[in-house]
Design brief:
Residues 1-26 are annotated as: Disordered. By secondary structure, this protein is α+β, with helices and mostly antiparallel strands. It is built from 16 helices and ten strands. The chain has three domains: 36-149, no CATH class; 176-321, GAF domain (Beta-Lactamase), CATH 3.30.450; 329-454, Alpha-Beta Plaits (2-Layer Sandwich), CATH 3.30.70.
Length: 456
């Protein structure tokens, strides 16, 4: 069997590529104009100085009429319009007030010739432009939130893909007497909650799959690595946080190893330093490897370390976020509760709705394997939970970033599939649909309603 090169950090590579494209756009002159600052003093400074510069320019170019009131086009209004485009109608109105102050300064001896039409038309234009800007900024914020969620799910799918590929390779490379399989290891990782004993279990799995001889796991608290390890293997020594490899891993927030990562002239006591990051890029700790066989220091081994650490930290993040729901409903799958809770956070932050389609299944539907038939129709982002009640069961399908149209489209596709099986309606198949909106109910209320439907 020949091995293929696998990138050590696909997430980091994708992020670098996206940031590079964004930086190229922001580096252009027009791109810089679209980048609005979030600092209050910068917004105030632009709101005042931009129209002031327009007044100064008009005074130098057209001294008799610096505001271009009698010109064919009111060029001075470009300044408030630009501010309204960048920061909205309120900032645009304040910028227009600077023009008004400028007019009073130029005409302080005679206010009888106040240009009412000039300022009225300009204010209306600034209000319209600012309102359009506010609407589009809201759309962009929601789009960025949706894209961030989809990027996280894509990253999760990439990790799962690599884990699947590596698990097949491990079946060919490991000895017949391997104590656990990759699937068993992943199952153990997803049940861990981040305690000290869990960290030791993770380190033992890494030792088995990556041939690590001496290593430690150190926690990350309050923006700093601890110098005391919470898990060790092979008699690891005390941790040197000033080591060049450890510092480089902290700076880059990615796996670093001795063969490629260090610059010329730098020395290190370690072989591998790998930050433990979840999908939200939050750091939980760092794996520091002191000894491992030279032939094991290859791309596939480093990728396995990255993916096992990522799966461990993702499990901790999911358990922490979904803990209130799991305490109230321990029968709910952790992944379903995690996605449900995360969609409620997305709703509160960006007003992006999600929906849960609860399908009440009769004993007839259960006997005909209807749950498995329906779950094969799920979209890639959907999460499902089959809850078995005393007499009836409920198949809950979470549709992230979906609305009532998403559930209607799913039910229409289900009806079409059932007709192919000789069933003329959903009710004939023993299915009663219920649409539960997270926007109206909240995550906890959705789970309560699913349980109520099952026992109805």
């Amino acid at each position: 069997m020949h091995s293929q090169e696998i990138p050590v950090a696909p997430k980091a590579a994708g992020s670098v590529q996206r940031n590079r494209s964004s930086d190229e756009f922001k580096g252009s002159p027009l791109g810089k104009l679209t980048v609005a600052s979030e600092k209050p003093w910068v917004i105030v400074a632009e709101t005042v100085l931009v129209p002031a510069f327009a007044l100064l320019l008009g005074y130098l170019v057209n001294r008799p009429d610096p505001l271009w009131i009698n010109a064919d086009f009111p060029w001075a209004w470009f300044a408030p319009m630009m501010i309204a485009l960048r920061y909205g109608p309120i900032a645009g109105l304040f910028s227009a007030g600077v023009l008004l102050l400028g007019w009073t300064g130029f005409n302080r001896q005679d206010f009888s010739q106040f240009p009412q039409q000039y300022f009225l038309g300009g204010l209306i234009m600034v209000m319209i432009v600012g309102e359009v800007s506010s609407v589009w900024r809201t759309h962009l914020r929601r789009a960025r939130t949706a894209r961030h969620y989809q990027d996280q799910r894509m990253e999760q799918l990439v990790r799962q893909h690599y884990l699947l590929r590596l698990s097949h390779d491990q079946l060919e490379q490991q000895l017949i007497g391997q104590p656990v399989s990759m699937r068993d290891a992943l199952h153990q990782l997803r049940d861990l909650k981040g305690t000290t004993s869990d960290a030791q279990t993770l380190l033992n799995l890494l030792s088995q799959f990556c041939q690590i001889n001496v290593a430690s796991i150190v926690p990350f608290h309050n923006g700093n690595l601890s110098d005391q390890s919470i898990a060790q293997i092979g008699g690891a020594r005390s941790i040197n946080l000033d080591d060049a490899l450890v510092q480089q891993a902290l700076a880059t927030r990615s796996l670093c190893h001795i063969s490629r990562s260090l610059k010329d002239g730098q020395n290190t006591s370690y072989v591998v330093a790998a930050p433990m990051l979840d999908l939200s890029d939050e750091m939980y700790g760092m794996l520091i490897v002191e000894e491992m066989p030279f032939f094991a220091l290859q791309e596939e081994t480093l990728q396995t370390i990255n993916l096992l650490l990522g799966d461990y930290t993702d499990s901790i993040a999911a358990n922490n976020l979904a803990q209130p729901l799991l305490q109230a409903h321990p029968e709910c799958p952790p992944q379903f509760a995690f996605e449900l809770q995360r969609m409620e956070h997305v709703l509160k932050s960006s007003q992006l709705p999600s929906i849960v389609l609860a399908l009440q299944l009769s004993p007839k539907a259960i006997a005909s394997d209807m749950p498995q038939f329906i779950m094969r129709m799920e979209r890639m982002l959907d999460q499902s939970w089959l809850f078995e009640g005393s007499e009836k069961s409920v198949l809950a399908i979470l549709m992230p970033l979906g609305s009532s149209a998403s559930s209607e489209g799913f039910l229409n596709r289900l009806s079409a599939r059932l007709e192919q099986r000789g069933l003329h309606s959903i009710e004939e198949a023993g299915i009663v649909p219920h649409t539960l909106s997270i926007q109206k109910n909240g995550a906890m209320s959705v789970l309560d309603e699913i349980v109520r439907i099952a026992h109805a």
